[in-house]
Amino acid sequence: MNDATHAAYSAYLTLLAERLLLRDWSIRLSQGTAESGRYAQVVISLQKNEAQVYLAEGWAGFPPEEQRDTLIHELLHLQTSRLRQVMRRLRDQLNSDVALYADTAFDEEEEILIDTLARVIAPFLPQIAAFATAVEN
After folding, report:
1. Ranges under pLDDT 50 in the chain
2. pTM for this one?
3. Which pLDDT does position 93 carry in this prediction?
4. How far apart are CA 107 and CA 87, in angstroms?
5. Cross-strand bridge partners of residue 50
6. Are 136 and 128 within 8 A, CB to CB?
């Protein structure tokens, strides 16, 4: 991704984060790419309230609606990150079989929750094309 495209997506990510009430987070768009098979991923540091978002190779070619929905999904992980931290602390107190089940169940339910919330929220937020046009004007 060239510098201009990276800057546009960084500004768009910032807009989405503000709309999702993540103003107390420092969120950066990485120049690196998401792990293979992922459209995007977020790496979170709770101690610093920081996050880095990584996008898939070829991200700019994805449909704008899919880009918006995916970024919202990744940003919503910040909203659930403290709950995930509580779950990890609880898991550490369990035996290995129960801990494995708890991890798996929590991961699945968190993804379902985030997917649902992203689908509910996304239609109320702009797509990158509408955002870019508004910035140009």
Report:
1. 136-137
2. 0.89
3. 84
4. 10
5. 26, 45
6. no
User: 40-45 and 26-33 as β-strands: parallel, antiparallel, unpaired?
Assistant: unpaired
Amino acid identity at 107? D
Tell me 86's DSSP state.
H
Q: Which residue has the tokens 């898939």?
A: 56
User: In whole angstroms, what is the distance from residue 115 CA to residue 105 CA?
Assistant: 15
**105-135 as b/e, with b when 16 or more CB fall inside 10 Å?**
ebeeebeeebeebbeebbeebbbbeebbeee
Looking at residue 137, what is its pLDDT?
A: 45
Give the model's pLDDT for residue 22. 96
Contact between residue 39 and residue 66 where contact means Cβ atoms under 8 Å apart:
yes
Question: Distance between CA atoms of 75 and 81, rounded to whole angstroms?
Answer: 10
Beta strands in the chain (DSSP E): 26-33, 40-45, 50-55
